[in-house]
Amino acid sequence: MAEQRKKLTISGLFKKAAEGKPITWLTCYDYPTAYMQEQAGVDMILVGDSLGMTMLGYDSTLPVTMDDMIRHTSAVRRGAPNTWLIGDMPYMSYQPSVETAIRNAGRFMAEAGCDAIKLEGGSAVCDRVRAIADAGIPVIGHLGLTPQSASALGGFRLQGKTAETAKKIIDDAKALEQAGAFMILLEMVPDRVCKLVTERAENCLIMSLGSGPHAHGQLLIYHDAFGLYPKFKPRMAKVFADAGAVIRSGLESYVKEVSEKTFPAPENWFGMADEEYNELIELLEEDQ
Ligand code: KIV
I want to staple 224 with a disulfide (CB 3.0 to 4.6 A). Which of 57, 94, 126, 237 is the partner? Predict the structure, then answer.
């Protein structure tokens, strides 16, 4: 049995950042991967609504429901009981009203055992952020490329390239912090914009996904970092181990060995004692 580790707290996360130690964060959607991530010492796990693409095969995150999120987040919690766990509010789980936002954020905490929730957007969602934080639920904001608004943003592309759009991201980050977000994820913004946001953050941790090294920590999508998403590989994702290639090769071996009758081998099946077998044959003969 692997040794249980101590779960970080919010103040532990701030302490880590203050000591200049980057916070490690990965997405995860299932029990066995959560188990491995916790064993590897990942600080935080995000059950992202990206599971719509990585696990359910949709072309976007938009069809993902709260029930999908709760099912996957609960499985991840069972695999990683001692890791900071964040539930990602799916499309239309917080946009319709403040009340909807509080209710669904509460589901992540009560039904899936989350430590925090994440939602997308800047000043437009500050009333939701404030209300959820006031309900005692730690909130993480998400700026830059926000996949739920990919259509309005012109696709999955770098955000904040111009001075004007970068200023909006910096203003939105401050607004989220003032509304009560304790952490903000910057996805696909230029490194210098991420640095400016990080330098301006007073009581808020800034995390980078494809936004350079100047944040308090890094997030990657697990499937991108381990070669498990066949449709495309974003430039920001380094492949740390090509698990996809290992699994594909194993699958080819399975098909080959079954086809060639080299699997199963005697160690893969169970025998029966001669005495019992002979008695069985006698019983069958009596039946005839
Ligand atoms: O759903 C998700 O995994 C996310 C990341 C893209 C940050 O929100």
Answer: 237
